[in-house]
Amino acid sequence: METAIELKGITKTYKGEKQAAVCNVSLKVKRGSIITLLGPSGCGKTTTLRLIAGFERPESGEIYVGGQLMAGEKTWVSAEKRKIGMVFQDYALFPHLNVEENIGFGYRGKDKKERVQEVLELVNLHGFERKGVHHLSGGQQQRVALARALAKRPEVILLDEPFSNLDTNLKQTMRNEVKRILKKANATGILVSHDQKDALAISDEIVVMKDGIIQQKGSPKKIYQFPNNAFVAGFVGESNMMRGIVLPGKRWIATDIGKIPCNQYHIISEGEEVLISLRPSGFEITEEGEIEGMVESFSYVGEYLEARVGVSSEKKEKISLLVYVHPNENLKQGDLLKLRVSANFVSVVKN
Amino acid sequence: MIQRKFGSLMGRVPPNPYLAIISIFVALFMSIPIIYVGIRGLFAGSERWLRLLDGRIPQLLLNTLGLTAVVVFFSTVIGVSLAIAVTRCNIPGRKLFSWLLVLPLIIPPYVGAVTYVMIFGPMGPLGSWFQIYSFSGVAFVLTIFTYPYVFLVVRSALKRMNRNLEEAGRSLGLDNLGVFLKVNLPLLRPSIGAGAILVALYVLSDFGAISMLRYNTFTSAIYYQMGGYDNVSATILSLVLILLTVGVLWLEARVGRKKAYFQADSSYRNLEILDIGKWRYPILGLIILTVTVTIVIPIGVLLYWAGIGLNRGALDGRFWGYLLNSLQVSLLAGGLSMVFAFPIVYLKSRYPSKFTSVLQRLSYSGYALPGVIVALGIIFLFNQYIPVLYGSSFVIVIAYLIRFLPQSMQSSSASLEMIPPKIDEAARNLGEPFWKVIFKVILPLMLPGLFAGGALVFVSSMKELPATLLLRPPNFDTLAVRVWVEASEAVYHMAAPAALIIIIVSIVPIKFLLDKY
């Protein structure tokens, strides 16, 4: 697979700041894939995006777009000369231009008219050519922004918090739409988001960042099921964290609430003390369950029941587990439950 | 390597170098004359200093500060009371009055002074009633034409005040007076201070009204020293006046810091209008008196004399010549101000750093300072280094730019701040180079603000008196100059038509002021 974007050891410190906004970040993005930089505000994800776009300059490291060096020790290609499209957070549509003029802005090919039509079809805005951008809904504005970014057939499309301004229903539609459009245009997409749902829904790969440092890269499934540190486990979904000792055979981990299965045997050794993360969705209520606990509280959130289950530990302290239960279950406070843990939702985590 | 160093110095992608160079040029151009006056004043020699310190400076300080204190006091009292009356009390017609009470701002104080000389002057009908050429005469005229500054600022603060605060005060057991003293007044204090400072800055810089009423403060003293070709004494007096002004500006910076009292949050509710019973009528009487004294009488007098002027053929070819002169220099200043304001405003907004805020401050240096000082600086520099331009009307345009460019900067900066920087980035991201981004996106979007700024500079230039008087080439008179000269010589029927034109032009910026406050 070809590489569309490559970052090599990028560091950027803003003036007057002690800590680097982005610290020694390296990243390869395959052509045609969609990746999401995910993290809380201030984690460096937006800075990374702006570095790729050429709005900020790294103090060290190299940035390649389509194999060509854009920024490095002696090289600097300014923003307008990079083949990168960008969809801004509030879309940044030019208020004095109509839809067609926005999309065609900066396009120099002779086929301008045809190309504008082509991308308008792609984003399902046929017939909106002459509309002013003020008269469009949020979702339509985003389609225009996406069309504008796609028009010049850039190497990569950057999307800065693309769904943060949309209400919940529209958000879901637009997640699917953006994914469809990017895939259909065969474009490479780099998305920035603080919302794990965006990331899980749209990405081929997620890059979790914190304090300017990449915490973990991987497919949405891998990130969710096997977070490799406590931050990722806590940021992408919720998690129960606990310590345990790896038992002989490396298939089980002994914890305060009993034996927990684990299939990450290749990264642990017998007798080692490890920190593990148990996803709340990894529990199953069944008679064969080895973990016994009592329902302390629960709340109904629609798709599932969020229950707190108190489990007595070997040290006689109660441990409270967060468990997602199918909404069909009729839970009452004080119910006794037997829980089984699926190894697919247990992850060994770095300290 | 060098490139990297420059990059890290600017903290980000460095600004376009041409834009930076133009901005530096503008900032220096705006500030050098003033700085030059300061330096010349500092090195004027201890002998001259001592002579002035012994002789004229103490008296001038007393005159200037005394006048400033009295005018600030009265205009604050009048401005605050009227603002409270029209925003909070059930005065009949309060909407109309809250507009009429701002209107004196269209009458430049020197024109106002002329109208009261027409009435109370030696040739006036009421000449024996009141000695207008006196401290109380000057104080009266300056007060009635500057109180609207306080009125405007306090009125806008009152409008933004949250009713919840008053009700909280009431729930804690305060009566009407208690709420006013303990809730409203403390909240108003920063705005009252800001208005008072505007008045103080105005009185320190006024030349026209003060000289028209034959009073002597620093500005008029500097003017007459320059008239007598004693530029050294003029520089020394200028330096003292600069220090006074800087002192007031320092106060302003301190008041400004405490301005963040208001929260227009979601719980904001309009204030209730208090029923003040039969007190309405005496207060209404005072408001009508104020409007009469500040608007009706001055404009009435001018109309009267303009009528006489028309009959005696005042609108002759020479008159149209003066108008043409005024328009020529003012339009040029307004137009250039748009060109000059843009680079600094853009740089400051898009590349905020110490460097850009220094540039901005430098461009403000002529703004608060009296026109006589700006003129003095220009005379020094042009006499010495660019004698070709000295004696052409172009130096007047330069003086206008130095005095009024910040008005244009404020206006265009306000409209630039409405355009998020992401718009620039989006345009560059789509492959347009810097200059195209400016011309295809930023300037079209900024145009209304840019033009509004140019219009403000145009109007201020039409009214400008002191720098024009000092810098005009022989036989180049503007309307403002004519008003002053004819009125000084008591040729009122010639002064009135020109004064009326200046007043009509001044209506334009009132709309901006009302929108702003």
Structural topology:
The complex is a heterodimer of chains A (351) and B (517).
Chain A (H helix, E strand, L loop, with lengths): L2 E10 L9 E9 L3 E5 L6 H9 L6 E6 L2 E4 L12 E4 L11 H6 L7 H11 L15 H14 L4 E5 L7 H17 L3 E6 L2 H7 L2 E6 L2 E6 L1 H6 L4 H6 L4 E7 L5 E4 L2 E4 L11 E6 L4 E3 L5 E10 L4 E8 L5 E8 L10 E6 L4 E4 L2
Parallel strand pairs in A: 3-8, 3-9, 6-7, 7-8
Antiparallel strand pairs in A: 1-2, 1-4, 4-5, 9-10, 11-12, 11-14, 12-13, 14-20, 15-19, 16-17, 16-19, 17-18
Helix pairs in contact in A: 3-4
Chain B lengths: L1 H9 L6 H26 L3 H9 L1 H33 L5 H7 L8 H12 L14 H26 L2 H9 L4 H30 L2 H5 L5 H10 L3 H27 L22 H32 L5 H34 L3 H10 L7 H14 L9 H24 L3 H9 L4 H30 L2 H6 L7 H10 L3 H25 L1
Can you describe this structure?
The complex is a heterodimer of chains A (351) and B (517). Chain A is of the alpha+beta class. Chain A has two domains: 3-226, P-loop containing nucleotide triphosphate hydrolases (Rossmann fold, 3-Layer(aba) Sandwich), CATH 3.40.50; 238-349, Nucleic acid-binding proteins (OB fold (Dihydrolipoamide Acetyltransferase, E2P), Beta Barrel). In chain A, 22% of the residues lie in helices and 34% in strands. Chain A is built from eight helices and 20 strands. Chain A has helices at residues 45-53, 99-104, 112-122, 138-151, 168-184, 196-202, 220-225, 230-235; strands at 3-12, 22-30, 34-38, 60-65, 68-71, 84-87, 156-160, 188-193, 205-210, 213-218, 240-246, 252-255, 258-261, 273-278, 283-285, 291-300, 305-312, 318-325, 336-341, 346-349. In chain A, the strands form four sheets. In chain A, strands 6-7-8-3-9-10 form a six-stranded mixed β-sheet, with helices on both faces. In chain A, strands 13-12-11-14-20 form a five-stranded antiparallel β-sheet, with no helix packed on it. A five-stranded antiparallel β-sheet of chain A has the order 15-19-16-17-18, with no helix packed on it. In chain A, helix 3 crosses helix 4 (138-151). Chain A is globular and about 75 Å long. With 517 residues, chain B is mainly α. Chain B folds into two domains: 11-36 and 313-477, MetI-like fold, CATH 1.10.3720; 44-263 and 276-311, MetI-like (MetI-like fold), CATH 1.10.3720. Helix content of chain B is 77%, strand content 0%. Chain B has 22 helices and no strands. Chain B has helices at residues 2-10, 17-42, 46-54, 56-88, 94-100, 109-120, 135-160, 163-171, 176-205, 208-212, 218-227, 231-257, 280-311, 317-350, 354-363, 371-384, 394-417, 421-429, 434-463, 466-471, 479-488, 492-516. Chain B is globular, with a radius of gyration of 25 Å. The model of chain B is unreliable at 1-11 (pLDDT under 50). The A-B interface holds A 14-16, 53-57, 59, 73-74, 76, 78-81, 84-86, 88-90, 92-96, 105-108, 148-149, 152 and B 3-4, 7-8, 11-13, 353, 420, 422-423, 425-434, 440-441, 444-445.
